[in-house]
Amino acid sequence: QVQLVESGGGSVQAGGSLRLSCAASPYPVRNYCLTWFRQAPGKEREWLAGINANGVTVYADSLKGRFTISEDKAKSTLYLELNSLKPDDTAKYYCAAGKVLVVGGCARINDWGQGTQVTVSS
Asked: For position 79, what pLDDT does the model report?
Protein backbone atom coordinates (compact mmCIF):
# COMPACT_ATOMS: atom_id res chain seq x y z
CA GLN A 1 0.00 0.00 0.00
CA VAL A 2 1.27 3.46 -0.94
CA GLN A 3 0.25 6.57 0.99
CA LEU A 4 -0.18 9.55 -1.29
CA VAL A 5 -0.37 13.18 -0.17
CA GLU A 6 -1.04 15.95 -2.68
CA SER A 7 -0.08 19.60 -2.27
CA GLY A 8 0.47 22.71 -4.33
CA GLY A 9 -3.08 23.59 -5.18
CA GLY A 10 -4.44 27.08 -4.80
CA SER A 11 -6.13 29.98 -6.51
CA VAL A 12 -4.69 31.42 -9.70
CA GLN A 13 -5.85 33.70 -12.48
CA ALA A 14 -6.49 32.40 -15.97
CA GLY A 15 -3.26 32.02 -17.90
CA GLY A 16 -1.29 31.26 -14.77
CA SER A 17 0.60 28.16 -13.70
CA LEU A 18 0.79 25.83 -10.74
CA ARG A 19 2.89 22.81 -9.84
CA LEU A 20 1.14 20.08 -7.94
CA SER A 21 3.11 17.61 -5.85
CA CYS A 22 2.24 14.13 -4.68
CA ALA A 23 4.44 12.69 -1.97
CA ALA A 24 4.40 8.88 -2.01
CA SER A 25 5.35 6.66 0.88
CA PRO A 26 6.85 4.26 0.23
CA TYR A 27 7.73 5.34 -3.28
CA PRO A 28 7.20 2.41 -5.64
CA VAL A 29 10.34 0.84 -7.02
CA ARG A 30 9.31 -1.28 -10.01
CA ASN A 31 6.32 -2.19 -12.13
CA TYR A 32 4.31 0.85 -11.18
CA CYS A 33 2.22 3.53 -12.73
CA LEU A 34 1.53 6.90 -11.10
CA THR A 35 -1.22 9.05 -12.41
CA TRP A 36 -3.23 12.26 -11.97
CA PHE A 37 -6.98 12.72 -12.12
CA ARG A 38 -9.25 15.65 -11.42
CA GLN A 39 -12.89 16.06 -10.53
CA ALA A 40 -14.94 19.22 -10.70
CA PRO A 41 -18.21 19.61 -8.79
CA GLY A 42 -21.04 17.89 -10.60
CA LYS A 43 -18.72 16.31 -13.16
CA GLU A 44 -17.23 12.88 -13.61
CA ARG A 45 -13.66 12.17 -12.63
CA GLU A 46 -11.29 12.93 -15.50
CA TRP A 47 -7.97 11.20 -16.11
CA LEU A 48 -5.12 13.57 -16.97
CA ALA A 49 -1.71 11.90 -17.20
CA GLY A 50 0.33 8.89 -16.16
CA ILE A 51 3.97 7.84 -15.82
CA ASN A 52 5.52 4.41 -15.34
CA ALA A 53 8.70 3.09 -13.77
CA ASN A 54 10.59 3.56 -17.04
CA GLY A 55 9.61 7.21 -17.29
CA VAL A 56 7.16 6.66 -20.11
CA THR A 57 4.36 9.23 -19.98
CA VAL A 58 0.89 9.38 -21.45
CA TYR A 59 -1.56 12.27 -21.47
CA ALA A 60 -5.20 12.88 -22.10
CA ASP A 61 -5.63 14.39 -25.56
CA SER A 62 -7.84 17.12 -24.14
CA LEU A 63 -4.91 18.71 -22.30
CA LYS A 64 -3.27 19.77 -25.57
CA GLY A 65 0.18 19.92 -24.01
CA ARG A 66 -0.69 22.29 -21.17
CA PHE A 67 0.10 19.85 -18.37
CA THR A 68 3.33 17.92 -17.72
CA ILE A 69 3.76 14.92 -15.45
CA SER A 70 7.13 14.14 -13.92
CA GLU A 71 8.68 12.46 -10.91
CA ASP A 72 11.67 12.89 -8.64
CA LYS A 73 12.42 9.46 -7.26
CA ALA A 74 15.06 10.83 -4.90
CA LYS A 75 12.36 13.00 -3.32
CA SER A 76 9.69 10.29 -3.57
CA THR A 77 7.46 12.79 -5.28
CA LEU A 78 5.27 12.90 -8.34
CA TYR A 79 4.50 16.26 -9.97
CA LEU A 80 1.98 17.77 -12.33
CA GLU A 81 2.88 21.09 -13.92
CA LEU A 82 -0.21 23.04 -14.94
CA ASN A 83 0.26 25.81 -17.49
CA SER A 84 -2.05 28.20 -19.35
CA LEU A 85 -4.73 27.51 -16.81
CA LYS A 86 -8.36 28.15 -17.65
CA PRO A 87 -11.43 28.51 -15.42
CA ASP A 88 -12.53 25.07 -16.72
CA ASP A 89 -9.45 23.61 -15.02
CA THR A 90 -11.01 24.37 -11.63
CA ALA A 91 -11.27 21.03 -9.85
CA LYS A 92 -9.85 18.88 -7.11
CA TYR A 93 -6.74 17.11 -8.36
CA TYR A 94 -5.85 13.62 -7.18
CA CYS A 95 -2.82 11.39 -7.62
CA ALA A 96 -3.12 7.63 -7.65
CA ALA A 97 -0.83 4.61 -7.81
CA GLY A 98 -1.40 1.59 -10.00
CA LYS A 99 0.52 -1.21 -11.64
CA VAL A 100 0.54 -0.83 -15.40
CA LEU A 101 0.59 2.19 -17.69
CA VAL A 102 -1.96 1.77 -20.45
CA VAL A 103 -3.53 4.02 -23.04
CA GLY A 104 -5.82 6.24 -21.04
CA GLY A 105 -4.19 5.83 -17.66
CA CYS A 106 -3.03 3.29 -15.12
CA ALA A 107 -4.48 -0.16 -14.68
CA ARG A 108 -4.99 -1.77 -11.30
CA ILE A 109 -5.09 1.42 -9.26
CA ASN A 110 -4.98 0.57 -5.56
CA ASP A 111 -4.09 3.80 -3.80
CA TRP A 112 -5.43 7.36 -3.92
CA GLY A 113 -4.51 10.63 -2.32
CA GLN A 114 -6.99 13.01 -0.69
CA GLY A 115 -6.67 15.64 -3.40
CA THR A 116 -5.65 19.27 -3.68
CA GLN A 117 -7.98 22.03 -4.87
CA VAL A 118 -7.15 24.18 -7.87
CA THR A 119 -9.30 27.23 -8.53
CA VAL A 120 -8.80 29.31 -11.67
CA SER A 121 -10.49 32.70 -11.93
CA SER A 122 -11.16 34.61 -15.12
From this structure: 98
